[in-house]
């Protein structure tokens, strides 16, 4: 287990003041605590909350600022600025506007935490096949398109990192077909092939053949599996650019997404993203859960 306290004590270089982190879906739940913990770490000059609702985003910024001012003046986090920028994940125009603002104001991004996601409630009457596209569009396709949009800025980052908040629901073993499982976990997988597999899954869900083709039974699970597979693709492809890419499961947390049924406090769940975002000598292409690296291939 990686002690969270040690993890957030990565070397505090003089460059900390110029480092910028962006957390998507940070106005509540786990994302809020990821942003708070990054701001309190003293490792960033600015932490940006990417949220789709300005009122909720600004309220979260104020809450984080209150925590930071309670730490003053002893802490190095006292000089961290926290701000909100609009982001609707899955809307290309919104991704582009965010990239343009970041480019104009900072010219780079050091850490991106892809936390925003959605899940239909178990009791939602929307048929399974109609839940498929919206789930994949936000959780997987939105995350991929936003990340690709921001990658040119991240490549200019200092100790650049991406952390994708996935889930144990994205475990590889949900895929029944050994052929599909080995394709999705292949070290040679490309992003375009992964996107094609996800499109095929959606088509098979819509025409009702997904079970006989050997897919898993959960749209949310497939969206998170694809986020984990994308993490591995980016980790390999971005290694030469110095960008470390990891993903995590926060655990079953007490948030709106779970209708507050999860036993783990969201501030505890958040640590699973904060560790790979802040630890010294972070590896790449790994899946973190329960505060340590876990083996997704055997999950
Ligand atoms: N909670 C758990 O037990 C659990 C377990 C495993 C993984 N996870 C993952 O952890 C992450 C955070 O989950 P959570 O439990 O904190 O969920 P949550 O309480 O529902 O919060 C989700 C956040 O994402 C934002 N969001 C959703 N769709 C968005 C979109 N299209 N554009 C912009 N923002 C969007 C929400 O904004 P609004 O407030 O505007 O809706 C909110 O800020 C997710 O990736 C989730 O899949 C959670």
From TrEMBL:
Source domain of life: Eukaryota
GO terms, molecular function: oxidoreductase activity
Record keywords: NADP, Oxidoreductase
Record bears the keyword Oxidoreductase: yes
Gene3D superfamilies assigned: NAD(P)-binding Rossmann-like Domain
Tagged with keyword GTP-binding: no
Family: Belongs to the short-chain dehydrogenases/reductases (SDR) family.
Protein name in UniProt: Uncharacterized protein
């Amino acid at each position: 287990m990686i002690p969270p306290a040690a993890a957030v004590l990565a070397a505090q270089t003089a460059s900390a003041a110029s480092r910028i982190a962006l957390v998507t879906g940070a106005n509540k739940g786990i994302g809020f605590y990821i942003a708070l913990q990054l701001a309190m770490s003293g490792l960033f000059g600015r932490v940006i909350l990417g949220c789709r609702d300005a009122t909720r985003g600004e309220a979260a910024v104020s809450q984080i600022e209150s925590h930071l001012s309670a730490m003053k003046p002893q802490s190095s986090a006292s000089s961290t600025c926290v701000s909100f920028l609009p982001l609707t994940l899955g809307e290309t125009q919104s991704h582009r506007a965010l990239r343009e603002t970041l480019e104009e104001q900072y010219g780079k991004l050091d850490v991106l935490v892809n936390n925003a996601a959605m899940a239909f409630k178990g009791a939602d009457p929307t048929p399974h096949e109609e839940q498929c596209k919206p789930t994949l569009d936000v959780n997987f396709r939105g995350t991929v398109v936003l990340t690709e949009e921001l990658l040119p800025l991240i490549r200019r980052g200092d100790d650049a990192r991406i952390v994708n908040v996935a889930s144990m629901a994205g475990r590889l073993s949900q895929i029944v077909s050994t052929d599909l499982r080995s394709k999705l976990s292949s070290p040679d997988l490309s992003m375009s092939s992964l996107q094609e597999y996800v499109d095929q899954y959606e088509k098979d869900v819509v025409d009702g053949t997904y079970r006989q083709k050997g897919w898993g039974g959960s749209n949310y699970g497939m969206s998170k599996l694809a986020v984990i597979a994308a993490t591995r693709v980016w980790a390999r492809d971005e290694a030469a650019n110095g960008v470390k890419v990891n993903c995590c499961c926060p655990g079953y947390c007490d948030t709106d997404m779970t209708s507050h049924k999860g036993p783990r406090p969201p501030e505890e769940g958040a640590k699973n993203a904060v560790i790979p975002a802040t630890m010294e000598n972070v590896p790449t292409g790994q899946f973190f859960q329960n505060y340590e690296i876990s083996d997704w291939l055997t999950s």
